[in-house]
Design brief:
Aspartate Aminotransferase, domain 2; Aspartate Aminotransferase, domain 1; seven-stranded mixed β-sheet; five-stranded mixed β-sheet; 14 helices; globular; binds pyridoxal-5'-phosphate
């Protein structure tokens, strides 16, 4: 089946009892058993719930994976992956990742004896230099949040295979519509479903997809043992949204490309980051692993006064923390999404106080451009 067909049907058969075409929200904490010891598919909703199971199957199919394991948030999904490790283990992680992921690795996992090296994953030499005998996992996010830096997935997956460690790719910005890391040999693909997969800024969720039966078993155990699971209603909202994922992603992509082309030569803008621009440094990588560029465009102004003025004047774009919704949003990364990254690290990587991340929605492009135009005026 094609991607759009799977987005509508994979994991979502008609409901058996009534024939309902839309899978019901199974609001049940527990399921009755005919007799003691009976072999039943559902016992207790922390362990499995039919609506969650449908979501897990749906996203797994879209990523080209065998198993999906859903969590209550994107960071809960990251935490569950980190829980595969033990005290004394070491992780190599890309230096540019979402601020909450940075916080989890840098400020939280240490107390469980898991250490992290933040590296530029551009070259095999950089990865090799960070490798230790205790290294168990390598973690990337491509494109990165918020600077849209691309990492070569083949390179990282190959490095992990040669060294017998687990590779993880956060695919939140691309979604499986534009990029499928498992097909490049990545072991675990991760999403914040709070973003494009749910797409309407109304739920928080996360999911991990894998082809490995062993990792699936371990992650399922973590899911059950820790209990950071999404509600049936949140799973249903995400399933409903996934049906329109191809249409939404295409429109996000078209609008974001139009915004990037419109802004890239503007005199008030010092730097612009969008993988779809012809001069993006990751062009060769994009050609290998992406079929589109997504809906996020980051821009840097020359000074903070202009940045503040722009944020204040925007009307259609809401100033808020998230991205990936149908509505256009804007984020000041230094004080919002990446405030947990120390200032010196932020500045060194390019997340300055003058950087603004635009999550371009699927409104009419004329309205989006006219809002940006008026916000750029003095
Ligand atoms: C790329 C990326 N990964 C993971 C997360 C964490 O997801 P959540 O906010 O659902 O916990 C985010 C959140 O912004 C993100 O942007």
């Amino acid at each position: 089946m094609g991607f759009a067909t799977d987005a509508i049907h994979a994991g979502q058969p008609h409901e058996k009892v009534t024939g309902a075409v839309s899978l019901p929200i199974f609001m049940a904490s527990t399921f009755a058993q005919d007799e003691l010891g009976a072999d039943v598919p559902y016992l207790y909703s922390r362990v499995q719930n039919p609506t969650r199971e449908a979501l897990e199957k749906s996203i797994a199919a879209l990523e080209g994976g065998l198993h999906g394991i859903a969590f209550s948030s994107g960071v809960a999904a990251v935490h569950s992956i980190m829980s595969l490790l033990s005290a004394g283990d070491h992780v190599i992680i890309a230096e540019e990742v979402y601020g909450g992921t940075f916080r989890l690795f840098e400020q939280y996992m240490g107390k469980y004896g898991i250490s992290s090296s933040f590296v530029n994953p551009d070259s095999i030499e950089n990865l090799q230099d960070a490798l230790r005998s205790e290294t168990k996992l390598v973690y990337i996010e491509t494109p990165s949040n918020p600077l849209l830096k691309l990492t070569d997935i083949d390179l990282v997956a190959g490095f992990a295979k040669v060294n017998g460690i687990i590779s993880v790719a956060d695919n939140t910005f691309m979604t499986p519509y534009f990029q499928r890391p498992l097909s490049h040999g990545i072991d675990l693909v991760l999403h914040s479903t709070s973003k494009y997969l749910s797409g309407h800024s109304d739920i928080i969720g996360g999911i991990v997809v894998t082809n490995s039966d062993t990792l699936n078993k371990k992650l399922r155990f973590n899911q059950k043992a820790v209990g950071a699971i999404p509600s049936p209603f949140d799973c249903w909202l995400t399933l409903r949204s996934v049906k329109t994922l191809p249409l939404r992603m295409q429109k996000h992509n078209d609008n974001a490309l139009a915004v990037a082309l419109y802004l890239h030569a503007h005199p008030k803008i010092k730097n612009i980051y969008y993988p779809g621009l012809p001069n993006h440094p990751g062009k060769a990588i994009a050609q290998k692993q992406m079929t589109g560029f997504g809906g996020v465009v980051s821009i840097e102004f020359h000074d903070f006064a202009t940045t503040k003025h722009f944020l204040k004047k925007l009307k259609l774009f809401s100033l808020c923390e998230s991205l990936g919704g149908v509505e256009s949003m804007v984020n000041h990364s230094a004080t919002m999404s990446h405030s947990s990254v120390p200032a010196d690290k932020r500045e060194a990587s390019g997340i300055t106080g003058n950087l603004v991340r635009l999550s371009v929605g699927i409104e009419d492009i004329e309205d989006i451009l006219s809002d940006l135009t008026q916000a750029l005026e003095d």
